[in-house]
Amino acid sequence: MANTAKQFVAEELARGDDSRLTNDPADIREGVNVVMIHGAWLPVLWKVAKRAKAFGAKLLIRPAGSYDPVRLAYHGWKKRLVAPFEHRMLRRADLLLATCEAEAEWIKAYEPKVKAIEITDLKRFFNLKNDKIGQTHFTISRPLHLLYLGRRHPLKGVEYLEAAVRQIQDTTCSTCSTRFKIDLRIVSNAFGEEKEKIWDWCDVLVLPTLSENFGRVIAEALERGKRVITTDGAPAWSPSASAAEDKGDGNDYGGRLIYLKGYRDGSPETRVELLKNAIERICG
Questions:
Q1: Would you give the distance in Å from CA 98 to the centre of its chain?
Q2: CB–CB of 56/67 below 8 Å?
Q3: In this structure, which topology does domain 2-120 adopt according to CATH?
Q4: Is the peptide bond before 143 cis (omega within 30 degrees of 0)?
Q5: How confident is the model at residue 116 (pLDDT cuts 50, 70, 90)?
């Protein structure tokens, strides 16, 4: 959220606005016209919302996927405990910013009395080619270099990726005529030059998520020309524009994006099998 918030600030500064990023509610005072909150569930954000309205500022909230039913269920008792504060903040907001149609529906379901919801395209912050023409050949390393870049968290699905790789490792892929090895790296903290070295190493980024409002790591991978495997837990990246449950942009980025439907609501075995099939597809 912090990185995306910085991109919003940079965009606003470029168009001549006086915009700044802060964690201190005291920075909201007389003369501030617009306050944008990134995230949810933190007492400091409720205080920010209260101060924004007290000083007559327009209040925008970008929940960043916080009202996805999957996330609401995770540590749900804590969220139910403080839900009255969250609902009050949402009802006071002038505008809610969602990253895709699916997230807009999550917000409406959680708090039907929000004043307005707008879809904001975060893909504009990245240099992504709008290439809908499929490619037929990709160069891959042997062994195949798979990368998961992000924190370990129960909603990120890393354990399903690890299980899929274990089952494939040192076996014959159904689409391959030779034995094929996979080198999987789980990287949770990498910055600057170290991060760029990891991207250089990577053949395929895998984000096996159960809940993602956007998934900026997908944008970072596509921006670098990498192939990506992700799931319907990241509906902003659905390549099926007509799918009512997804409403993505209809783009598979030249065949570089593999999007697994039926993963989010599938059984653990189904999730592992979908990932295995996607990896084998790349092997072939």
A1: 12
A2: no
A3: Rossmann fold (3.40.50)
A4: yes
A5: very high
